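ok so i was messing around last nite and threw this chain in just to see what happens. nothing serious, just curious
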Amino acid sequence: MLPFCDRVVSVPRNDVAPVWTRSFPISKEPTTLGEHLKKKRFSSGIRQSKAAQMLEVSARTLSLWECDRLFPTAPYHARIIKYMGYDPFKKLTK
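result:
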């Protein structure tokens, strides 16, 4: 066997979304906090566990937030605003 046959070149492609983000529908115009959180996470290309770690909450908590089954309490608002880069609470429509 030739010495170069067992080499593999791997280059990350930043212009293509990860495979796991292509199968979930994401709202282009988010109207709920969960949609805002999910859109931010998918556009950043990070997994839920990493996003939860950044927000200093459990993955289960973030999942409940993204599914709009639970609304974050006031102490978490500052963390969410910092993570999002804007205030999604002002953009929520009733």
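not much to say yet. The CA atoms of residues 25 and 39 lie 10 Å apart.
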